[in-house]
Amino acid sequence: MRASAHGGRAEVLALDRRHAWHPYASHDDWESDPDALVLTAASGTRFRDADGRWLLDGNASWWTAVLGHRHPRLVAALERQLATMPHVPFAGITHEPAARLASELVAVAPAGLTRVFYSDDGSTALEVAVKMAVQCHAQRGEPRRRRFVALEGAFHGDTVGAASLGGVEVFRRPYASVLFDCLQVPLGAGGHDRSFDALGKLMDQVGHEVAAVVLEPVLQGAAGMRQYEPALVHRARELTRRAGALLVLDEVFTGFGRTGTFWAAEQAGVTPDLLCTAKALGGGMLPFAATLATEDVFRAFRGGRDRAFFHGHTFCGNPLGAAVAREVLAVFREERVLEGVPRRTAMIEGALLPLGELPGVREVRCVGMVGAVELEGQGYLDSIGWRVYREALARGAYLRPLGNVVYLAPRIDVPEEDLAELLDVLVTSVRAVLTP
Ligand SMILES: *Cc1c(COP(=O)(O)O)cnc(C)c1O
Fold first, then answer.
1. Quick one: which atom of ligand 1 is closest to the CA of 221?
2. I want to staple 125 with a disulfide (CB 3.0 to 4.6 A). Which of 14, 74, 134, 289 is the partner?
3. What's the 157 CA to ligand 1 centre distance in angstroms?
4. Residue 138's Cα: distance from chain center in Å?
5. How far is the CA of 232 from the centre of ligand 1 (A)?
6. Could you give the percent of the chain with pLDDT greater than 90?
7. Which of 59, 74, 42 is nearest to 282 (CA)?
8. DSSP secondary structure code for residue 158 in this structure
9. Atom 15, ligand 1: residue with shortest CA distance
10. Most ligand 1 atoms within 8 A of CB, residue of 156, 164, 256 to mutate
11. Three-state SS for 247?
12. Is residue 344 within 8 Å of residue 366, measured between CB atoms?
């Protein structure tokens, strides 16, 4: 058995390195990486590599497995749906999972969001929001509102529309020539307060041309876990309302309890015109996404056939994804998942805040179920975070960095003993790299 397990690793890696192409990867690094992970199973807070080692999953598999891997209730829901109807189109057809999920999402969403448009992943949820915003204004008689505003450092996905909104310079640069124009609000040394002052000025000047302001509320994830005051989201709501522009909140990362409340928007007491959700919505099992809209936005699409929203992905409303998403919502409700967050936030703060004293640490940031340590370094392409990554891997945890930012964003219901172990690995790994 052991020999075949080892042979399995080598064979899978060889095939992969010959033909597969990885996201966000330098293949020169990947192909020479002695620690390249080959995984064979995932369960709860951990996954298992081909050598039989169980590793702690420090980021819930790119922020998706918010109830852990293979939660028994999600597996059962998926199997039940698989046994009856895995897929049918959502064009001119409906079915119980998608119809019930729509009403259940509306029930948990900020009050006033009443319509649910399905797509596949975070990027498509944002594409939908962009096209809805433009068409909504045009059909209300304001076709000149077609500019978008987003924050520097924002991440809204990788498709061309979503990347146009993005403000992570390294991710934009190669494609800049084909991205549409998006006004970036700078994140200067003054922090987010200053940025929202700048947003106010910008809206005074060009607000009448703006289709939508797009924000990750309270916490900018891929930017390096940069948090800001909920009051600023509130301010953006007032600025957009006054200018007649839409507010799009991208809760692809922040939704499902990541910042402590179910949606980050709740902390600001704000209802956006459009809200995007994905990642956690699919329970860490399936790609599944939704863009929620107010009745006001939806109303602009009523009337003749030419006023329809001309958008629909082949797998939108997929019954398997919808069935799993319904079960994710049910588990959050019935297992009172959010009630366990404050204790865990306190554990994260208790373990990570002292690292702020270490030379080489620029800042420690904790919010909800996220703890991040920004090291001295040059942003996303810096290798310092990867040195911590290797130390952590040797100690049994997968802690993929965002350049010079090392962070954990585990499942929201992570057992406290797993969280303690994960924190211990993170802290000792950072210390190992920073202290000679
Ligand atoms: C990951 C992410 C996206 C893109 O989601 P994909 O599923 O990767 O397309 C969009 N917005 C935010 C805030 C994200 O974190």
1. 15
2. 289
3. 5
4. 29
5. 22
6. 93
7. 74
8. S
9. 253
10. 156
11. strand
12. no
The verdict on pTM exceeding 0.70 is yes
Give the Å distance between the CA of 105 and the centre of ligand 1: 19
**Ligand 1 residue neighbourhood (C-beta within 6 Å):** 121-123, 126, 155-157, 216, 221-222, 250, 252-253, 278-279
Q: Which of 226, 251, 252 to mutate to test the pocket of ligand 1 (most atoms within 8 A of CB)?
A: 252
Question: For the purposes of burial, counting CB atoms within 10 Å of the CB of 4, is it exposed (0-12), middle (13-18) or buried (19 or more)?
Answer: exposed
* Cα of 329 from ligand 1 centre, angstroms: 20
Measure Cα distances from 366 to 1, 221, 363 in Å: 43, 12, 10
The model's pLDDT over 72-101, given as tens digits with 9 standing for 90+, comes to 999 999 999 999 999 999 999 999 999 999
pLDDT per position as a tens digit, 276-331: 999 999 999 999 999 999 999 999 999 999 999 999 999 999 999 999 999 999 99
The conformation of residue 180, written as its DSSP 8-state character, comes to P
d(CA 307, CA 288): 26
Q: Helices 341-352 and 416-434: crossing angle, nearest 10°?
A: 20
CA of 155 to the centre of ligand 1 (A): 7
Contact (CB, 8 A) for 119 and 127: yes
Q: How far is the CA of 230 from the centre of ligand 1 (A)?
A: 20
Residue 265 to residues 30, 150, 257: CA-CA distances in angstroms? 38, 16, 11
75 Cβ contact list (under 8 Å, min separation 6): none
